[in-house]
Write a structure and sequence with these properties.
It is built from four helices and no strands. By secondary structure, it is mainly alpha-helical. The relative contact order is 0.17.
Length: 109
């Protein structure tokens, strides 16, 4: 993840109604608690994509039942897109705006 991207989009997520505790947990590399069922399913699906480069059949079926195949494609696409954007920003070393401290903690490998 890129701090530049996080700085730009975390504010929008909070304005859109994301619980600040969920955003804080993600920024700190912790699994959030208190997510609603949809948030938890998207989080689980996304986490599996990043950690395992895929999802289990059970997870796929649960996501398909809830979001449909188009929804699954959207989840995969947004994960891939923002991974690419983060790679570009990180390699470019795009700085945060003046006076903004990095919010993201380094992720454990």
């Amino acid at each position: 993840m890129a701090n530049y991207e996080w700085n730009a989009h975390c504010k929008l997520a909070l304005k859109g109604g994301l619980d600040p505790a969920i955003a804080q947990a993600i920024a700190e590399g912790r699994e959030p608690t208190g997510m609603d069922a949809d948030e938890a399913l998207v989080y689980e699906f996304s986490k599996s994509l990043h950690n395992n480069h895929g999802v289990s059949d059970d997870l796929f079926e649960r996501a398909k039942t809830r979001f449909g195949e188009r929804g699954i494609v959207d989840i995969i696409a947004v994960n891939g897109y923002y991974s690419l954007v983060s790679f570009l920003l990180n390699v470019d070393k795009t700085p945060l705006p003046a006076g903004v401290e990095p919010a993201l903690k380094p992720l454990k490998k």
